Amino acid sequence: MRKAAVPKLAELLKDQNTATRERAAHALGRMGSDAVSALPALLDAARAADGAPVYADALAQVGPKALPPLLDILQKSKGGQGKWVLNILHSFGAPAVPVLSEALKSNSAEVRTAAANAIGEMGRDGSAAATPLFVLTKDSTPAVQAAAFRALVAVHADSERLKPLLQEALNDKDTDVRKAAAAGTAALGGAATLGVDGLLDLLADNNAAGQLAAVQALGQLGEKAAPAVNPLIAHLDDAALQGSIIETLSHLGPAAAPAVPKLLELAKKGDQRTTILPVLTGIGQGAKDALPMIYTAIHDSAPDVRASAATALAAVETDDAKAIATIAPLAKATESGKVRRAAAHAVAKYGPAASAAVPGLISMLEKETERGEAMRALKAIGVKNVPDLMSMLAVRDTRVRTFACQSLGDLGPDAKDAAPKLREIAEQDNAVRATATAALKKIDPAAK
């Protein structure tokens, strides 16, 4: 029944109505290899529609038997006539790589360039074409060389083999080859080789892959990329680069301060606060204009936002008392360990001034995943309250009990109410017996 329908559907591919032709192509695609006899009609329809997705998908579903005629068409194409074929081949993914590899050997430089670009767009799926692509890095046509370099980076070809070729191409007489080499060098971790000026030239280019590589490489330079802040800000409205630019700005520290107004604008337009808040944290007090947004985010319903806001507030707010009063209660947050850990990390910087956070931090000690961050903060703050320290003696962690014993001992006679508990521990707890005994001697030197 399916095969009987193929001729009728093939005839409909010639219909004057666009929707009818597309429905016929879709139906043939669903038949898979049973629609092989309709290939000539499908190819004609695809050519007429410039490789539209519905035909590309149909041909890909028909399967590998569609590849030889596509290669034949590509090799016979002149100028840009075969571009639609490459659109089709891209839909096949990895199975099309052998065909595209053959196209890399075409006598037409335009076909070689287009095939390299198509392979590059496949990413890792195009890795099997690395060998012929390496050959094309020495092609006589600069456009082909440039396309080969970009494709080799995109398919994750052998970097040890590729890096020397890129290094050499950085000095090529052709601008496009130099740009492709720069983009590849940046993508493979060569930020230092290109320097800020070289990366900014790459960012100013119109090649999307090169711009992305430049943005990411600038992040590798950290604060040394400070001269790039304004150019990065200028590209923040580019949706393809926006996320990477925000990430890069987070590595630039206080030098990224000029980006604060634009970041706040983006925070209002879309919910990107979890990526923007870390940038503000890195900028520190230079991001003071963002404080209203940060305080609002502290009370957000999303735990990730609140956690990031707590960290940012500790870095940006110059009024320590105000920051502590806002962050300390978060250590008692009941529904999110991430928020509690962020709060503990944030209050540690304030030392003894953050004593209001101690009860919440002690409550975190019961949770193994939070104990480390809580102890770090408690040590930074210092615990002087005897009841608090006594509650820590009940925690089933030797490090916590040891800290509590030592802290009680440091209080001397002021910790006399804890003496009975310490004697009990000295008699029963082998792990902290010596520490408890030493604390008792400090609390009551006359005791035996």
What is the topological layout?
Layout: H1 2-12, H2 18-30, H3 39-48, H4 53-62, H5 67-76, H6 83-92, H7 97-103, H8 109-121, H9 130-136, H10 142-154, H11 159-169, H12 175-187, H13 191-204, H14 208-221, H15 229-234, H16 239-249, H17 260-269, H18 273-283, H19 291-298, H20 303-316, H21 320-327, H22 337-347, H23 358-364, H24 368-381, H25 386-392, H26 398-411, H27 419-428, H28 433-443
Helix pairs in contact: 1-2, 2-4, 3-4, 4-6, 5-6, 5-7, 6-8, 7-8, 8-10, 9-10, 10-12, 11-12, 12-13, 12-14, 13-14, 14-16, 18-20, 19-20, 20-22, 22-24, 23-24, 25-26, 26-28, 27-28
Care to describe what's here?
- With 448 residues, the chain is an all-alpha fold.
- It has a domain at 174-252: Leucine-rich Repeat Variant, CATH 1.25.10.
- It has helices spanning 2-12, 18-30, 39-48, 53-62, 67-76, 83-92, 97-103, 109-121, 130-136, 142-154, 159-169, 175-187, 191-204, 208-221, 229-234, 239-249, 260-269, 273-283, 291-298, 303-316, 320-327, 337-347, 358-364, 368-381, 386-392, 398-411, 419-428, 433-443.
Q: Mind telling me the CATH class of the domain at 174-252? A: Mainly Alpha
Strand content: under 5%
Our count of helices gives: 28
Based on Cα principal axes, name the global outline: elongated
Protein structure class: mainly alpha
Largest sheet: none
pLDDT averaged over residues = 90
Here the CATH topology of the domain at 174-252 equals: Leucine-rich Repeat Variant
Order of helices and strands: HHHHHHHHHHHHHHHHHHHHHHHHHHHH
Number of strands: 0
Q: Uncertain spans, ≥5 residues at pLDDT below 50?
A: none
Would you identify the CATH architecture of the domain at 174-252? Alpha Horseshoe
Euclidean distance between termini CA atoms: 100 Å
- Give the proportion of residues in helices: 55-70%
Alpha-carbon Rg, integer: 33 Å
